[in-house]
Structure formats: structure tokens, C-alpha cells
Amino acid sequence: MSTIPSTAAPEGIHAEAVTAWFGRHVPTARPPLGFSLIEAGHSNMTFVVSDTRRQRWVLRRPPLHTVLATAHDMGREHRAIAALHPEGFPVPRPLGLCTDPTVNGAPFYVMEHVEGSVIRDATEAAALPHHTRRALSHSLVEVLAQLHSFDVDAVGLSDHGRREGYVARQLRRWLRQVTDTGAAERPEIRAIHDHLAARVPEQSTTGIVHGDYRLDNCIVSGDGKVRAVLDWELCTLGDVLADVAMLLTYWSEPGEDGQALDNAPTAIEGFYTRAELIDAYAAASGRSLDQIDFYLAWGAWRLACILIGVQARYRAGAMGDKAPLEGIETFEGRIDGLVVRATHHAARVR
Fold it and tell me: Is there a contact between 211 and 236 (Cβ–Cβ < 8 Å)?
């Protein structure tokens, strides 16, 4: 089997060894293979792999400079999509997992390449017709409700995480992470934590929690359907309303200040409002959202904690010499806006 030299591949890919692995696990591939980085940064690295027949696959591996020792578990990501794909849930079909770090410097897995678009910002969202934005809002909710409907035992994910106490553990985890980063003290972060920690709702059901469910973690079709849900690195078991909270936290409305995302795609007219999302999820899932203010407070607080940690690591140089610094200056305003939002919702939680 012919191969390409490792120098032809981007950083993070040992081309010769990965090509040999493809020969054993993806027999339809015809080398030489090409590798193109499409996502990097705080999360796992994603590469498109192509061959001489213009076939394409996707390879996921941890970042070159892992920050959290317990994160970036390729086996967990692969296991989640391997369990969900046979159930008809929209995830890419998994093709193989490599746990031997001598092949590529770290574990990785390969999955099918799903055609479609990832809507990352308002410019891309504006290119969609108004009716497509509505359809996409509906599809996002329907797919999330489908994920939360699975019996974790029946799909083989019974030991994919601790079942109970998800939100309480998350409160402890992210407060600890803010403290451990050495970021400047923000008394409101601890105040919100303490208020919520004393009022955690009883977890009525346990389901599959994606952990980072949002529009730009999905591949969508031209007619507004979710074709594949991506980025399963935070997937676990727990309180499924946490996913609803994070979708709503990232979701921006037109003309709104303090957006969680820069240039948020849903700030374009035509997408559901947050209230419409809540009503649609309640209808699709049959779950009560009477305590949604608690979850919205927690979601905004959690994302603020995440951004505080990322900002501190960038400033300390822990993200590597080549980490992009553009956009870091916006973190302060985004964190402030999230803290205000969390405080607002927390005040409604008695």
C-alpha cells in the first residue's frame, strides 16, 4: 500500500501510520490520503480525510496540548455515536477507534463524512430562507427530544456516567475549575453557585446528556433538518434538562445585548424565540419545564465559568504558541452578560 510522507500532513496527523491504519479498518480507502484540519482550539481536533476517489471521512483526536486530564476521551465519544447510530439517531456512522497512541500520538476515531452545512454565525444564518430558519429551529428541538427519549440501558450506555446528581456535580466542578485557573475573583460567581446549590431540583429522570447541544454543533441540510449531531466529548448520563438549558443559553434573539456567542446565528430574524423553543421542547418531550429558571440560571453560570477558564488559560499561554488571540477581548463582555443573565434567573428561583 502506498502512503504519503508524514511531512505532507498537518500537525496532529502522522500520515504514514494513519494511512496504514485506514488500510486495516477502512478498506474502501484508496491512498494516498489527504488530511485537512477543519476544527481546533479548546476542543478536540477534527480533520477531513480524503482519498484518490474523492471519498471523505472525518478523524477526531485530542488537542495537541490537553488542558484537562479527564477530558478529550476518544473512546467515550466513539462509544456514544456507536450506540446511537443503530437507533436511527442523526450521528455520523462510526468506522473505527484507535486506542494505541503510538499510531498517531494520541487515540483517535474515524467516522463517515456527512454532507451538509454547519451554521456558525449570523452571516451564514442570514443566507438561509426565513422558512428554513423556522424549520431548523423545530428540527433542533425534535432531535434533542429524541435523544432524551432513549432508554440508556436499552442502547447500551448504562455505565456511561453517574446517573444521579448531575447538576449538583456540575456546580461543584465548574466552581472548582474557576478557582483552579487563578482567574481574578468574581464574588458573583460564588454567590450564584451557593444560591443554586441550595435549590437543585429533584432529578425526575435520567437520560443521555449531550453536554454541548447547540446549532453550530450540528450538520444541517438545505431544507432545515439536522443531519448529524457532532462533538460528543461531554456526553454523559444525567438530568436531560441541562441540555435544554445550554441550548437556550447559547440561543440569542434579534437585537439582544449580552449574547453568549459572538455574531450568534440565531440573532437573525426567523429562528424561534427562546419561549418558542421551551414550548416546542415541552410538546415534543412531554416534560414539565416549570423549573426552567433554575436551569437557565445554571446554564448561564456554567458558560460564564467555562469562558473564565478559557480566558485565563489563554492569558497564561497554556493554549500553545499558535493559539489564536483574536476574540479574547470579547470574553469579558460575554462573561459579564452571562453573569447578569444568571443572576436574573437565579432571583426567580425560590
Answer: yes
HEC readout, 185-208: CCHHHHHHHHHHHCCCCCCCCCEE
229, 235, 244, 247, 292 from 287: Cα distances, Å = 22, 21, 11, 16, 11
Residue 96: which H helix or E strand, with range?
Answer: strand 94-98
Residue 3 burial class via C-beta count within 10 angstroms: exposed 0-12, middle 13-18, buried 19 and up: middle
Task: Mention the CATH class of domain 122-346.
Answer: alpha beta
C-alpha cell at 70: 479527564
Query: What is the DSSP pairing of strand 108-112 with strand 226-229?
Result: unpaired
Q: How far apart are CA 69 and CA 73, in angstroms?
A: 9
With a CB cutoff of 8 Å and minimum separation 6, the contacts of 247 are 140, 144, 213, 214, 277
- C-beta of residue 299 within 8 angstroms of C-beta of residue 245: yes
The pLDDT tens digits for 213-259 are 999 999 999 999 999 999 998 999 999 999 999 999 999 999 887 77
Q: How far apart are CA 165 and CA 31, in angstroms?
A: 48
Q: State the average pLDDT over residues 204-213.
A: 93
3-state secondary structure 304-350: HHHHHHHHHHHHCCCCCCCCCCCCHHHHHHHHHHHHHHHHHHHCCCC
Going from N- to C-terminal start, the domains of the chain cover 6-112, 122-346
Q: C-alpha angle 22/235/86, rounded to 5°?
A: 60
Q: Is 182 helix (H, G, I), strand (E, B) or coil?
A: coil
pLDDT class for 7, splitting at 50, 70, 90?
very low
Rounded Cα gap, residues 211 and 251, in angstroms: 15
The fold of the 6-112 domain, in CATH, is: Phosphorylase Kinase; domain 1 (3.30.200)
The answer to whether 52 and 31 are in contact (CB under 8 A) is yes
Residue type, 188: E
C-alpha to C-alpha distance for 191 and 221, rounded to whole angstroms: 43
5 has pLDDT over 60 = no
User: What is the pTM assigned to this prediction?
Assistant: 0.90
Q: How far is CA 227 from CA 59, 68, 199, 215, in A?
A: 18, 30, 37, 12
